[in-house]
Amino acid sequence: MKIKKYIELAAALILIAVFTAEIFGAAQSGCVALDTSFGTGGRTPFYTGTGQAVIQDASGRVLVTGSINLPGDMVLARFTASGALDTTFAGGVGYAAHNNAAGGNGLDIGYDLAIDGSGKIVVVGASTGSTQLDMAVWRYNSDGTIDTTFGTGGVFTSAGAAGGTTDDAAYGIAFDGAGRILVCGKSADSGNQAKMTVWRLNSNGTLDTTFGTTGYVVYGTTASGNDIAIDQTGKIIVGGYIFSLLTSKDMTVWKLNADGSFDSSFGTGGEFTHNGAAGGSATEDAANSVAIDSSGRIIASGFSSDSTGYNHATLWRLTSSGALDLTFNSTGFNCSSNIDGLTYDDSINKIQLDPSGKIVGAGYIYSLVNASYDTTVWRFNQDGTLDTTFNGAGYKTVTDSYTPGVHDYGYGLSLCSEGGILVAQKINTSLNVLKLKNSCEPAVTPTPTQIAGVRAGDVTVYKNVINPLKGDKAKIFFKTTAGERVKISVYNNRGVLVSSLYNANAISDGEQYIVWDGKNDNDSQIGSGVYIVVVETTHYNKSVKVVVVK
Fold first, then answer.
1. Rg of the chain's alpha carbons, rounded to an integer?
2. Burial class (CB in 10 A: 0-12, 13-18, 19+), 106
3. Is residue 487 assigned to a domain?
4. Which residues fall within 8 angstroms of residue 163, CB to CB, at 6 or more apart?
5. Is 104 among the domain residues?
6. Domain hosting residue 517, numbered range
7. Phi-psi region of 342 (alpha: psi -120 to 50; beta: other; left: phi over 0)
8. What is the mean pLDDT of residues 292-318?
9. What is the 3-state secondary structure (H, E, C) of 80-102?
10. Is residue 498, in this structure, part of any structural domain at all?
11. What is the domain count for the chain?
């Protein structure tokens, strides 16, 4: 990433540092702050390397992947819910490192990770082969040991999907309803031009040759798939970029059918492209992350370049048919240019929807005040506007070093069930996970009449691991008072609404229950994975986790 030099502004920056630092601080003060109960002052210990993705498991432990050491080993680390290395993981070390997956003994790196329905951890990324980077997929058991039943010794690698001999890489992962692994990324053709690529693996780590014609699909010239999701109908959504006439990089979303063919009802032949959100032309726009809301609309995040070539954090929302949704910020996108008035080169690298449908994103801004890139978390309303109830401004910037030229980038994001926000970072040359505490939404203090016979937190689940194919059902117990409003919803681990189980007034006092059979609102069986059941009443909002296996 090119670091800009603002020599002509040097004198002005002295004044900015003196006279606007206080203003900048005021804009950042609010209800979002580092959670000092996590790790050391809200951060995990530092390691040489880079953090790329972070998730929580069903027990609230924190998993992060990226790369450590030089030239680079893929790392999978697990921390306790309080941010300490989990010494019950990976033979007591707390992290597993793997190199030489593709045989080249160079860089190995994880870019994304997910937990399958059996609790195994799948990491996707890249590994150095004999002459190039190969796309790589690793699978680990829940205790941090590599799963030797997967691929070859726990690893699957692929080179030359597009016919070339240069770099291939995997950037995003999703599971379909049959538990197969979908991976997006890029593969180089014989002319060394990257093509957007989607691979599908069977659960044993072999290519699923019923997908496309060979187990993968390649498309475009100088294109990349940066993130992937499965919509409520089982179709595959990929976000990334494609070069248009080799003069500009356009933000792109593709939609594929379950067999790997492009969905011709979406956009133009299964593809939607857009540039110029920030006002530039013949510049660089890209989607780094995608999510699907409860209405099937597609939200993409990334950046868009202005007329001078600076990147600005951008959100887009598309209809399910592949057109800009003009009910979203009136244009179909929100380009949050210069959010603090003093920033350039911003990007939202990962998004997730919270249980209320708001959009939370993690990335970075370039601050002229600090002369560095700083990790930033944004929150947007469902209509695409910045949510100013979040930290008073709609965003929170965390500066880990005020030393000019020392940069920290937010790459991965995971929303915690209790409301915290986890971000995987690269701080200069170090891997880190930080946790933010969000106290923006005031707690509701129930009156004595509201809580008569009811205790906040009285939400439990019977049979929290279910196999719907065997007729298993989860029974969610909760306590209410007669007449109060009760809403019960199921979300996947990306924050997408899967099922609205109940939304009505309680008919009686005391303990109630509702049954979930592992189906979505379309009455279709959902895929394996960890799901969050959220129970909202007049006086409490609690969640429980249900694991679906097949």
1. 23
2. middle
3. yes
4. 189, 190
5. no
6. 459-548
7. alpha
8. 91
9. CCCCCECCCCCCCCCEEEECCCC
10. yes
11. 1
